[in-house]
Here is the input.
Amino acid sequence: MRDTQTAHHAPHHADALPRTFLVGCPKSGTTWLQGVLEAHPQVCSRGESSFGLLLVSPIFELLKSYNDQQRAGESNTFSGEDALDIARTAIHTLQRKWVDQLPEPERIRVIADKTPEHALALDPLNAVFPAMKVIHIIRDGRDCIVSGWHHNIRKEEAAFRKRFPTMERYAYHFTKHNWVPYINRARQWGQTHPQRYLEVRYEHLLESAHAETARIYRFLGVDAGDALIDQIIERTSFRSLSGGRDPGQVNNASHFRKGVSGAWREELDDASVRTFEQLAGELMDTLGYERSRAMSA
Here is the structure.
């Protein structure tokens, strides 16, 4: 029994691996980019753990509540370091399983999680993993709205249309509660931690897949050889992920619906464009996304 307990509590080789968190506004290409990470033989990548929002923050709150309510004295309280250790151990426990399920776990050099909402929880995650890196993918919000609209209709059309009877209503909600706050929060973290933050544009990843993929792998510190990158790009291309369709060939029943940028020009009504640009115009200008003529209509 003693040997079994010792083995159970022994450090796991995955615990010492560097952590990366892939974030981005929903429908910005996080699933696609997570696949690019997962395809690398030195990267263990999963989605979507929601560690920051569903595990780390509640652990902090629970331990604070315990400290406030327990009656055994000041020495019977959890410190801030205790809380961090507990949260770190919880995440380690789960991510060990990620690595152990791989065919060659000994090859892994980086563990990466894709959770879009972690854009709002980077500070607590950074407290747990002070050396963590962040990859932030950004996409034109007008394309995100089109993609999100079709995604939600595909998943639960009746409930979604009841909540958002028009695309304009959805555009308002998405812009105010997703696109603007997710991007601003993640970029603010990046400004404070520039050496551990990489910003990727969905549009650039489409246009320059090899160069962008190489940049991502170099940021992670894993093999960025040309032959490997070419293999991974082929494996994670829109044609491969969509079952053989070319970019631009639409299938509204697929998670990988269209695979192009700029589709909003044909699919987003003027009212939705105006709503988005009124709420997000300043951020669009900062990011270099050109405003449309719909603003003057």
Remarks:
- Residues 1-7 have pLDDT under 50 and may be disordered.
- The CA atoms of residues 122 and 189 lie 7 Å apart.
- The chain has two domains: 2-139+196-245, 141-192+263-297.
